Amino acid sequence: MVTRMRIPLLGMVLGLVMVGCGRKEMPQPVLEQTPPPSIVSLAYEQHYNSIRVTMRLAGGGGFLGYQIDIAQTDPICHCRTPWQRDYELQPRKGMDQKDVVRLITIHKAGVEFFYRIRAVDALGRLGPWSKTIRAQPVERIQ
Question: Tell me, what's the pLDDT at 45?
């Protein structure tokens, strides 16, 4: 008797889980003929220990994201360290031709940091890297 009740109950729970999760819209195809992703405009300004980056992405059929890489000045050789991924926003719908703002915080005083940004679309296509952004934290004057 108990096993008979478990099977329908399990079926109802699985049915609710299947219906209750996932996207509720039809998939939007991104065709290979769509223009590749790119950064149309990029502006930044530094405020003490942070950088406010404003960018506008285009292409990719409207499904766009971006990647930010970081490097810093090596204290021994005074050269730039290898690039590492600092942040990545996965491609999402509605990012085409909209201003995107990202605030980057710089934590180490006395070290020069380098940033570069590129757009990415839902097909995994990568846009060209932006011009390198250089920043060094500034001490606040009290």
Answer: 94
